[in-house]
Write a structure and sequence with these properties.
With 284 residues, this protein is an alpha/beta fold. The protein has 12 helices and 8 strands. Helix 4 runs parallel beside helix 5 and helix 7 crosses helix 11.
Amino acid sequence: MTDTKIGFFGLGLIGGSIAKAIRSHYPNIHIQVYSRRKNPELETGVAEGVINTIHYDMAELFSTSDILFLCAPVLTNISVLPKLKPLIQNHCIITDVGSVKGDIYREAARLGMEKNFIGGHPMAGSEKTGYANSSRTLLKNSYYLLTPTEQTSKENLDRLASLLSCTQSKCIVLDAGKHDDVTAAISHVPHIVAAALVNMVQNGDDENNYMKTFAAGGFKDITRIASSSPEIWESICISNKKSICSFLDQLISSLNEIQSNIADENIEAVNAFFKSACDYRNSL
């Protein structure tokens, strides 16, 4: 593993955390990253000893990496695949960290890159962004979902899983379509709900800003993730629109039902609504 060159296209919160975990476990491995321009955060990564090389030419990164992590927003990762194809080495493993798999999976298949591509999604994060907020322990005890293609070799899957063991996460292999349904329900729709709640309060407040002033723990807890990067979530929503819209339909139906039961003072139905949620939440 020490002779392996690990490349990162994008090195923010998740990519930076993976890089730091790799560095802590493999002190002699070569970690290289791409940057469009001079980036003080990446220079900090060099000074910290996490990064060996910063490439300002994509071709240099793509052609020399043995394992390449795509850590940019989902749509950017997809758009870079055609540029990768003529440059990568035959043995190169390409993996991403995006929370949507369907579109990038289909693009890899269209380009004939299925042998090289293994989808990846570390189920950890923060509303904070950027390399400066990354940590070698961010992924510890979290699930790391891997979505190999039909042409992924066991050798490559094992190589990637072995490398990721340094993050102390739990690698789980999952079908790409099932992955997108799961993440829509437990991650994507909750982000939309959090943003909608914040916008509801912002639009409903008056000149005294009482809602903003008195917003306390409950509101702050449920809306914390609304502080996440708008660019990342714009990309996720467009990429996973089918699954997200399906679960939004279910949520809207549930909200309409509870609204009707509250308006009708249907005490038993209102109680059942909260009890069902309470019981399931307590089982998590």
